[in-house]
Design goal:
The strands form four sheets. Strands 1-2-5-6-7-8 form a six-stranded mixed beta sheet, sandwiched between helices. Among the domains are: 174 residues, Trna Endonuclease, Chain: A, domain 1 (3-Layer(aba) Sandwich); 52 residues. By secondary structure, the chain is of the alpha+beta class.
Length: 334
């Protein structure tokens, strides 16, 4: 199975479980393909947000990813603020950050005395994340690629609380010796949904400073020490991106091919299934006129957000009623 389909199947398996011994899974949120670096270019295949004590408060606040620069200010649900003064970013970035926070459902705009002001739709819960788990997918350990380097980076940076390698291969002692001891290992069968824990992950020091390898050249590796405060900001950014994104292919990514149909993974679809190829496909890299089985047509109508809301603790309409009620409380004047 290709890595893309393996990744979707693993996410579906984890999301469909309830965390019990008979159906191990997650009671948090999963997202795919997220940047998990501070200064480098590491992309983690799957990130799991394990709920903290205020997780329900975050779910009810808003459905989108809140830009971290907004969260690093004193913009709250009280007095409306001028974002140009509140945000500690380059002036050219202010409008884009505010737009993203409004789109996420976290900020509301209002105009007062000729000034554009913003206020939060609710109070941001500081302790909604319990742990961040990273899952690196490598179905075939016979083709490891940069796996060893990637996992060493994950462990030395410790941006995540724990890291797991998921594979469909038989895991030998030689395989285990080639990856850091702190990395957990799962053997996962995407056809049956069976998951064997070969090795439990060791918790990483996510609260402390980290070491991030950057450029590698023969005989030399450039590194950067990342302070704990900088990691805290990066972890919040990662958690927020995971919260807003999820793991299902976005509706806009589905190909306009008559052959592609709506498939299921562990009953938590929709995923793009291609009968011509006989498997789940990655629309971004496998579909289009260059494909030998391509037939022009209309992309299937899918609603990934509704599927996510049905299967995970996430509400696409969170905060909408509160925002609508609040809009009438603030007048506008020029």
């Amino acid at each position: 199975m290709r890595e893309y389909a393996f990744e979707l199947a693993l996410c579906a398996h984890l999301e469909s479980g309830d965390g019990s011994a008979s159906a191990p899974g997650t009671d948090g949120l999963l997202a795919r393909q997220l940047g998990a670096a501070c200064h480098g270019s590491r992309v983690m295949d799957v990130v799991e947000v394990v709920p903290g004590p205020q997780f329900d408060d975050r779910v009810s606040l808003c459905p989108g990813s809140i830009p971290v620069p907004v969260l690093e200010t004193d913009i709250g649900p009280g007095t409306a603020r001028d974002p140009r003064r509140a945000l500690d970013v380059h002036p050219d970035r202010v409008e884009g950050i505010v737009d993203a926070a409004v789109d996420a459902g976290y900020l509301d705009r209002e105009r007062r005395d000729g000034c554009d002001l913003v206020r939060a739709t609710g109070r941001y819960p500081a302790h909604w994340v319990g742990r961040l788990r990273g899952i690196e997918n490598k179905p075939d350990l016979g083709r490891p690629g940069d796996l060893r380097r990637q996992l060493r980076t994950d462990v030395s940076l410790a941006l995540l609380d724990e890291v797991v390698l998921a594979t469909a291969s038989h895991v030998t002692g030689a395989h285990l010796n080639r990856i850091p001891d702190a990395v957990g290992v799962w053997r996962f069968d995407p056809e049956t949904g069976e998951r064997e824990v070969v090795r439990e992950p060791t918790p990483l020091d996510s609260d402390g400073p980290g070491v991030e390898p950057l450029d590698r050249r023969p005989g030399r590796t450039d590194i950067r020490v990342v302070p704990a405060a900088e990691k805290r900001v990066a972890r919040r950014r990662l958690a927020e991106r995971a919260f807003g994104k999820g793991w299902r292919p976005d509706a806009a990514a589905w190909p306009d091919c008559a052959r592609v149909s709506v498939g299921e993974c562990a009953g938590t679809g929709p995923v793009p299934d291609c009968p011509w190829k006989g498997r789940i496909v990655d629309p971004g890299s496998e579909c289009g006129p260059a494909c030998g089985g391509y037939e022009p047509g209309t992309a299937p109508e899918v609603d990934p957000a509704a599927a996510r809301a049905d299967a995970a603790p996430w509400d696409p309409d969170a905060g909408e009623r509160r925002r609508q009620a609040g809009l009438g409380n603030f007048g506008s004047s020029e």
